[in-house]
Amino acid sequence: MLFESNNLKVIANDCAKKIRKAIPDKQFFDFPYEHLVIDDFFPEELANSCLDNFPSLSESCWDYQNDKDIEVKYRTTWASEFDIPDGILEAVKILNSSIVMHAISELMGIKKIIPDPYYTGGGLNVTTRGGLLDVHVDGNYHDATGLNRRLNAIVYLNPNYKTEWGGEFGVYDQTGDNCIKKIEPIFNRLIIFNTHDKSFHGLPDPVNFPDDEPRRSIILYYYTVEPRRSGENLVNEPHSALWKKKGVTDKKGNKTRSFN
């Protein structure tokens, strides 16, 4: 085993420390919604392990989303931690550990967060040349548990990234009309943000990554029993992602959805 449990605990504590020490207006921002950006988040050995063990798109673990002008990307079909490749599992364990979640909770001011053992929508993401993700807000409800989605964490795995490749994470204003900033998806960069009905984000311009080096990331979600804060909801009922190009409705043109 590449990383023993004791070593992972040391790494988790170091990662938590980086989160707690995030510098306001340089690493942690509260406008237009709370978001954190930390470079060199994992030790180099672990970040390289994630990249080395990142599955090829020829493997059977991928689901291809191909909704023109809305969502064109690949994501894994993980259903449990047993689907996660060794070498990446260690990074997921750290991000989902109580050690790191306590730090995230304290920084973001969102108490009692838990990870998603079902990996609903979470896992690995790949965007190839021409792929995109329209400006949107995320779904709010977790069918498997009945919990409220509160935070997203993204770790980018693009070691040779060049600005001309595009694919920046766009942070938008509360209407989704104006891009406030673009965050480049460089290798071993962590982004965590408060996800709610006004936290518009996306990469609406088709990416220009090389065919042999697509845009790669790990994406995980965190939930709470407590609902989102006052003022963060536009739709109180369960809803899927709401897309700007669809008039802030889901892919079927609805504001809400059925749930179990």
Tell me about this structure.
This protein has helices spanning 5-20, 44-52, 89-95, 98-108, and strands at 28-29, 35-38, 62-67, 71-76, 114-115, 123-127, 132-137, 141-142, 147-156, 169-172, 179-183, 190-194, 201-203, 215-224, 242-243. Strand 1 (28-29) and strand 2 (35-38) form a beta hairpin. By secondary structure, it is α+β, with helices and mostly antiparallel strands. It has one domain (5-226, 233-246): Jelly Rolls. The model has no long low-confidence stretch (mean pLDDT 97). It starts with a helix and ends in a 17-residue tail after the last strand. The chain has 4 helices and 15 strands.
Question: What is the fold's blueprint, element by element?
Answer:
Elements: H1 5-20, E1 28-29, E2 35-38, H2 44-52, E3 62-67, E4 71-76, H3 89-95, H4 98-108, E5 114-115, E6 123-127, E7 132-137, E8 141-142, E9 147-156, E10 169-172, E11 179-183, E12 190-194, E13 201-203, E14 215-224, E15 242-243
Antiparallel strand pairs: 1-2, 2-12, 3-4, 4-6, 4-7, 5-14, 6-14, 7-13, 7-15, 8-9, 9-12, 9-14, 10-11, 10-13
How many domains make up the coordinates? 1
Helix count equals: 4
The CA-CA distance between the termini, in Å, is: 39 Å
Q: For this structure, what is the CATH homologous superfamily?
A: q2cbj1_9rhob like domain
Shape: globular
Radius of gyration: 17 Å
Strand content: 25-35%
CATH structural architecture: Sandwich
* Largest sheet composition: 15 strands, antiparallel
Structural class: alpha+beta
Q: Residue ranges: pLDDT <50 for 5 or more in a row? A: none
Mean pLDDT score = 97
Q: How many individual β-strands?
A: 15
Look at the structure and give the CATH class: Mainly Beta
N-to-C series of helices and strands? HEEHEEHHEEEEEEEEEEE
And the CATH topology? Jelly Rolls
Helix content: 10-25%
